[in-house]
């Protein structure tokens, strides 16, 4: 098969079917209709003399032929994407670009004031839209340009490596409480003492444990959750006016003037990752915004010192 007789756009569609596992979702990613994707797949099957994808109850499953060639196709597409990106042409001072970032409320509280201050100085015409996108929807939203970035404690698991990420924040968990709480009179904080406390759990799910709760459950311990709410930013006033305690990051407790104690057992640190689509690796505007977001988180982290 001569490359000169091959429509290279078919490789883009083939990769989208592979990553999305669906003709409909592949159509959304590429920006064409589902019948057009079906037609492209038919042409690909003729070219390769292979089914390439088999329809099953769980989606379009690649054949062995597809598995054998898809990595080379993805590498070639990424190389071509890098070739057409021109990072030196981006000028933040004159750009009117809009960035869309998936942020939870606590990360909005962490960095938006700092980030907007930086943008106001460097890029007065650039706009920012922030909203939360469910974790399992982030890779698709990045691929379709519904999102420019996402910030999340977990990195998407993508078999095609369509997303890249960098750690932008790390902090330790603490127990935040009101001033003069009875727990402050305890000289030697033990597991038994923290189990006597009542806690707030913040989650947008109906059920499920936090990171700290999961570590306690590994030790067969179960903290008492007196309040389950959706947003961290409602908690400071509740903590200050009740005996309820909050398992949160040290920087959050400091920012909101909450008293806090260190946990008497080891817990993995709270980490946040900046996530973007790999096709934007060399895009000048994305590089600029990645650096600005990273710098904003660095300023937050410096408050721990």
Could you describe the 3D structure shown?
41% of the residues lie in helices and 21% in strands. The chain has eleven helices and twelve strands. The mean pLDDT is 88.
Brief sketch in words of this structure:
Helix content is 41%, strand content 21%.
Overall residue-averaged pLDDT value = 88
CATH class of the largest domain reads: Alpha Beta
Major sheet: 5 strands, mixed
What is the strand content? 15-25%
Task: Tell me the CATH superfamily of the largest domain.
Answer: Periplasmic binding protein-like II
Shape: elongated
Class derived from helix and strand content: alpha/beta
Radius of gyration: 24 Å
The N- to C-terminal Cα distance equals 62 Å
- What multimeric state do the chains show? single chain
Q: How many strands in all?
A: 12
- Total domain modules: 3
The level of helicity is: 40-55%
The SSE order reads HHHEEHEHEHEEEHEHEHEHEEH
CATH topology of the largest domain: D-Maltodextrin-Binding Protein, domain 2
Known CATH architecture of the largest domain: 3-Layer(aba) Sandwich
Low-confidence stretches: none
Give the topology, please.
Blueprint: H1 9-20, H2 23-30, H3 34-48, E1 53-56, E2 59-62, H4 64-84, E3 98-102, H5 105-122, E4 127-131, H6 138-143, E5 149-152, E6 163-171, E7 173-177, H7 191-195, E8 198-202, H8 211-218, E9 224-229, H9 235-241, E10 245-249, H10 250-255, E11 259-262, E12 270-277, H11 284-301
Parallel strand pairs: 3-4, 3-5, 8-9, 8-10
Antiparallel strand pairs: 1-2, 5-12, 6-12, 7-10, 7-11
